[in-house]
Amino acid sequence: MLLVDTVVENNNNKNQHIDPRMNNIGMEVEETVRELRQYFKTGKTKSVAWRKNQLQALLNLVHENEDAISKALYQDLGKHPVEAYRDEIGGVEKSAQSSLNSVEKWMAPKKSSMPLLFFPAKGELLPEPLGVVLIFSSWNFPIVLALDPIIGAISAGNVVLIKPSEQAPACSSFLANTLPRYLDSNAVKVVEGGGDVCEKLLLHKFDKIFFTGSPRVASIVMTSAARNLTPVTLELGGKCPAIFDHLSNPSDFKMAVKRIVGAKWGICSGQACIGIDYVLVEEKYSSELIELLKKFVRRFYGDNMVESKVLSRIVNKQHFQRLCNLLKDPLVAASIVHGGSVDEANLFIEPTILLDPPLDAEIMTEEIFGPFLPVITVNKIQESIEFINSKPKPLAIYAFTKDETFKRKIVSETSSGSVIFNDTLVQFLCDTLPFGGVGQSGIGRYHGKFSFDTFSHEKAVMHRYLCLEIEPRYPPWNKFKLEFIRLAYRFNYFGLALHMLGLRKQN
């Protein structure tokens, strides 16, 4: 059951009976939050030594438990060990090591220039932790989407309460049992459970909520956060398009298709917020594109998807059925040009390509989050911009083109969390660029220094001295003081002094 469904059901049943277990959950959550807040007040998490120790401990956790993590990911999602390392373990290692190398520089005060009018004065920007952070992680990348936000939160000096997804139970159990053995258990706590636990968590005041998941659930999180004016970062998703402009060079054409196939099916069987949701291509090139898509699907995943053990499975029967329902529309089924077979016993769905399914069908109005790839044809590739703009803002736009004018139009005339030209997914691993959405695809950003900033408040500090005074700022008022104040807003310090000198000479 999805969090949103669970919360709604719990709310509907409140007047029917009171579950004693809910009272116990509420008491446990309340005690956990209280302990975290008390520990934060001690100031221990603010020191550079504590932060570095925790980051090193996270590195140790990953290094010493790589096999256990891979096993948990296989149990929950059927991820191959190579995919598990590429998409989750390696990402955590990279993020933790980068933060360990940089955290001392990130947390140092930064000088800020002062207007000459305030001379003598100096200013600085001082990053400070927000306090108690609540992190909801997602089931499709249950390790990296739990640990990467934790890295940012502890780098910034916060205490953390992490709620792993109950839909990835093996990974949730791993985090609950392993994190306390490596990290400061007074500062980082794990709470497991379903929607009932989430409901109780959202009753409490936190200093920051970081949520990864669907827009439907995000609206519940944001509504709850608003009651306490709690800032939120929402990492959501949306229908991420790929624009496929004609590439006259055959090797470029082939490379682009290869990257599309890898991005669509090679990352959790399409169960990824940054995965390609559909491809836009000119009609005259669609046949060539589809034939090459089929070729790479067969090369990467073989003819027997179960025996190859390369393709991840669908997370559970509920999501499996949801995906199967997308193909029940006869017009959608008729648009299938490759694949479409399912294996309910093993929760596998074959990589499936569709050509021009109905645009009002659910497969084109909702995020697919599975191994279906609609190919949508247009007369001219420039029409893809209007098509994208007719839908909610996506988390990412992928565009394969060498046309620099077209690139500029995509960047300037569309809105998305990111735009990636001639590649896919790599933006998630690039810590020097922020990762996050816009509009329905998310609020806020993280990764690298951007994670540190997300979990920090940059406090402005100004130092002045009790010597020179700006007398015209005080009553009683007269025309001379008004002129001084007017000029102070318009000129720098030296220009102001010259003007005032001229005024005095005239008087």
From TrEMBL:
Signal peptide: none
UniProt keyword list: NAD, Oxidoreductase
Superkingdom, natural source: Eukaryota
One GO BP: aldehyde metabolic process
One function term, GO molecular function aspect: aldehyde dehydrogenase (NAD+) activity
Residues of the Aldehyde dehydrogenase domain: 27-461
Keyword field contains Ribonucleoprotein: no
A Gene Ontology term for the protein's cellular component: cytoplasm
Active site residues of this protein: 235, 273
Entry-linked SUPFAM superfamilies: ALDH-like
Catalyses which reaction(s): an aldehyde + NAD(+) + H2O = a carboxylate + NADH + 2 H(+)
Keyword Protease: no
Pfam families: Aldedh
PANTHER family: ALDEHYDE DEHYDROGENASE, ALDEHYDE DEHYDROGENASE FAMILY 3 MEMBER F1
Similarity annotation: Belongs to the aldehyde dehydrogenase family.
Protein name as annotated: Aldehyde dehydrogenase
Species of provenance: Pisum sativum
